[in-house]
Specification:
By secondary structure, this protein is an alpha+beta fold. Helix content is about 55%, strand content about 5%. Strand 3 (about 505) and strand 4 form a beta hairpin.
Length: about 550
């Protein structure tokens, strides 16, 4: 107890406590999962929550319900459903934990590079500007964001190996192996950094005949990997869904969801082009991503060995190239590129090291320096992330309603959710179909558990998989659900909306509603509609109930 008390009173623990307070405050106004927002209307977040909820109600992902992310994503959101059936409060807590972990690893990297505790803390306080940069950090709750501290732990391990002649505790390898399993079963395109790390370090140990170190690397990493993947193998075998998991998560994603079908080398060139465009799109990205990486590559202040310098660059490139492998530049959702920002942290720490050599600070904690840096950090975060304008701080903002009124309003998701819960008898299961578009949060706010395989539409063209909309239309045709939600551009009725290009917004592939109008009118009646802004476009949401 005495030792624990000393640790809690240590400067590192106090700095971690400060970072936790700062991280919680920042996330409160940057993440849509935060209670400061009326609703999280992110399509991806709600799809994850819906599948997680279905999973906790005995529905098997991939086999009984269709979605393309990995099982860890649904399991996390299933736990969130168990904590709060109609909110993302647990996810918000996990986002806070993710940001604080990333900030603390930035602090630890600073100390590892011989920054004094106070300068290391100041650099860590500035780092949220990188992790929450909009639109790369958009709504929040993405696998890319949750992977940032994982990547930073790998970068920390690289510096540690460099400092200790490529010796590390077996627990480091166990942890990295476990993280590989988690990332593999969350979004496997984010594995590039670990693939390069294991290949290069394994070859290094092999060439130098360091058999003990090679055995420790392989053995303990394998133990960690099995610990995080083995339970899922058992789950899929017990539920007889292993084939469905492989078909959807691996085969469907690689053969249908990716935008490119060109050869391997051409895809690498495409990814490289996208990465170059990213670096050249912003002076900060160029400074940290290009000049900062060059400084690390040629300055011995960060890495002492040529091998680790080259490995750091190779790991960063592998991470970036695989993350967007198979995508064309015009079809990349910008949040995919958030993983690039993990490799901005070491250059940021290095530039901080250079700066604080010229601007000395006292050995102890200086309140004015900390408060000044904290104020600057909050200012910079608001400069790169304006999500707060959609929060409760701005009542009746455009994301809530387009109605000109001073009376407090609620978004369509909350309004429709209340209506569905109120009008569904207590002894009757609430059934819902989100027709023609990605999940917009109505399953979440209503509490409905999906009763159909295709509970939403997806960012997949109808020609690539016509079965999705065919099944959704049949559900309405045979009035298999009590409630139907759909959307049109503002000013368009359901009979008028032909679909056009098929998109209402960049992330909402929609087939139109005109062809469905007669079938819908025959079996359902309109209960409510509500217009609000979604991703820069005014969208009208419609709620229909089955006719008696």
């Amino acid at each position: 107890m005495r030792g624990l008390g000393q640790k809690l009173r240590s400067r590192d623990a106090q700095h971690l406590g400060l970072l936790a307070i700062v991280g919680t405050f920042i996330m409160l106004f940057c993440s849509y999962t935060s209670p400061a927002f009326y609703v999280d209307d992110s399509p991806d977040n709600n799809a994850f929550f819906t599948v997680g909820k279905a999973m906790m109600n005995g529905i098997v992902p991939y086999k009984d319900i269709f979605e393309q992310k990995g099982p860890y994503v649904y399991f996390l959101h299933g736990l969130a459903y168990l904590v709060s059936a109609r909110s993302f409060i647990l996810i918000f807590g996990y986002e806070v934990l993710t940001l604080v972990a990333a900030m603390y690893l930035t602090y630890r990297l600073g100390k590892l590079l011989r920054l004094a505790p106070l300068p290391a803390l100041l650099v860590a306080l500035l780092s949220p500007m990188l992790f929450l940069y909009h639109p790369y950090y958009d709504y929040g709750d993405t696998v890319e964001f949750f992977t940032l501290p994982f990547l930073l732990s790998l970068i920390y391990l690289l510096v540690l190996l460099d400092r200790h002649n490529f010796h590390a505790s077996h627990w480091w390898y166990f942890a990295q192996g476990a993280l590989v399993g988690v990332v593999l079963l969350s979004k496997y395109t984010l594995l590039g950094a670990w693939i390069m790390f294991y290949l290069a370090l394994g070859v290094y140990f092999l060439v130098h005949k360091r058999w003990r170190d090679l055995g420790k690397l392989v053995g303990w990493s394998a133990v960690g990997f099995v610990m995080t993947t083995g339970p899922w193998l058992v789950y899929f075998l017990l539920t007889k869904s292993l084939g469905a998991f492989i078909k959807v998560y691996f085969l469907f994603n690689t053969h249908v969801y990716l935008t490119s079908s060109v050869a391997f080398f051409a895809n690498l060139i495409q990814s490289t082009s996208i990465l170059a465009q990213f670096y050249l799109s912003n002076i900060l990205f160029f400074l940290l991503g290009v000049l900062g990486t060059l400084a690390i590559l040629f300055q011995p202040a960060v890495f002492h060995h040529h091998f680790t310098r080259g490995l750091y660059v190779a790991v960063g490139l592998a991470s970036a190239l695989l993350a967007l492998y198979g995508y064309q530049s015009g079809a990349v959702y910008q949040y995919y590129e958030l993983v690039y920002f993990a490799f901005f942290v070491l250059p940021l720490v290095y530039f901080g090291q250079v700066f604080f050599k010229r601007v000395p600070l006292p050995n102890g904690d200086e309140p004015f320096a900390i408060l000044g840096t904290l104020a600057l950090s909050l200012f910079l975060v608001l400069g790169v992330n304006n999500n707060v304008t959609d929060s409760r701080v701005f009542p009746n903002n455009a994301s809530i309603t387009e109605e000109a009124t001073t009376k407090p309003q609620q978004p369509a998701q909350v309004v429709f959710g209340k209506l569905m819960r109120q009008r569904t008898p207590v002894d009757q299961k609430l059934t819902l179909l989100n027709y023609g578009s990605i999940d917009m949060g109505f399953y979440t706010t209503s509490g409905a558990v999906p009763s159909t395989y295709y509970f939403q539409n997806y960012n997949i063209t109808q020609s690539a998989d016509p079965q999705i909309l065919r099944d959704q239309t049949n559900v309405i045709k045979h009035h298999q659900v009590e409630w139907v939600v759909l959307n049109t551009p503002a000013g368009k009725s359901i009979k008028q909306w032909q679909g056009g290009s098929g998109r209402i917004t960049s992330g909402n592939l929609n087939p139109g509603t005109a062809k469905l109008a007669k079938t819908l009118d025959r079996n359902y009646r309109a209960i409510a509609y509500h217009t609000q802004l979604f991703e820069g476009t005014n969208v009208t949401y419609w709620l229909f109930q089955k006719k008696m």
